[in-house]
């Protein structure tokens, strides 16, 4: 099996070695030290001050999105949501479910987020701006400066879902005045699903979270923050995934963070250059190094996905909705290389010829 998927990803052997070990008992000083060590590295790589508060949820990314809304927002807020695809829509759905007043910037298929979208809502007051910095369903990488500058102008808190961008694209939490960073283990960390870290700025913690007593036991951020002063979580975490996380972060540190990002950038650029040989095109907007969305000239995307999976044991990401017959997404994170790119493109040539006869 070879995964060119954006999560779960193709895991490095060092991570698989951790997975094969006995999961230890975790209410110990040793496990606390592992968690605090992971937190130190996580904040270092996102440029978050040590004083920022961390929550380690045993939940999917969607659980982290919902928990953030529950702990930080209420019915007196007015939230601006960037909706450029499946995961932007998820924020919209959560705001509706929790009755948080919101305005939506809705991007059409293939449309880039630009300053004109913010100009259209310039006259409105907002308390929060929410975006998936990389809209995974389309691979569009939003301009963080547009988001940050608008939030700052409105004196609004900035909430960023960086699940498929952090540890892949450059990300600067403090430098871009980001108040919440939401992550999930199976994307940029390239480990198993199960842990979703959330990092909160000092000002959001003091002004909102600290005195917000939500009617929810499992998702109450204050309980997580209190427990994490000693490197623990209030409820049983995905212990094995936590150990994978620590190993993954140390592997990045050993390689050198900029070297790590540069390697992903090289693999992404190499793939995008190689597919010029295929009957496909790329979107006009800026795309993340995490994944390349390729649009076929003919409606063969589902067939290509199925043959790659069933005949070659190669997995790429299908795309749902209006693009399901035309678009596949190929990830460049995890244990994939330029040699893997060569193999994939050559295999895709064979598959396309098998389907179209060309």
Q: What descriptors fit this protein?
A:
single chain, 358 residues, alpha/beta, seven-stranded mixed beta sheet, 12 helices
Describe this structure in words.
- The chain is of the alpha/beta class.
- It is built from 12 helices and 14 strands.
- A 7-stranded mixed sheet has the order 2-10-9-8-5-3-4, with helices on both faces. A 5-stranded mixed sheet has the order 1-13-14-12-11, with helices on one face.
- Helix 2 (29-46) packs across helix 9.
- The longest helix is centred in the last third of the chain and has 19 residues, at 338-356.
- The radius of gyration is 21 Å and the shape is globular.
- The two termini are 27 Å apart.
- The model has no long low-confidence stretch (mean pLDDT 96).
- Tally of DSSP helical segments: 12
- Rounded average pLDDT: 96
Kindly report the spatial arrangement of strands forming the biggest sheet: 2-10-9-8-5-3-4
Radius of gyration: 21 Å
Tell me the number of strands. Answer: 14
- Strand-pairing-aware structural class: alpha/beta
Distance between the termini: 27 Å
How much helix, percentage-wise, in residues? 40-55%
Name the helix and strand elements from N-terminus to C-terminus, one letter apiece.
EHHEHEHEHEEEHEEEHHHHEEHEEH
DSSP strand content: 15-25%
Largest sheet: 7 strands, mixed
Question: Tell me, what's the shape?
Answer: globular
Low-confidence stretches: none
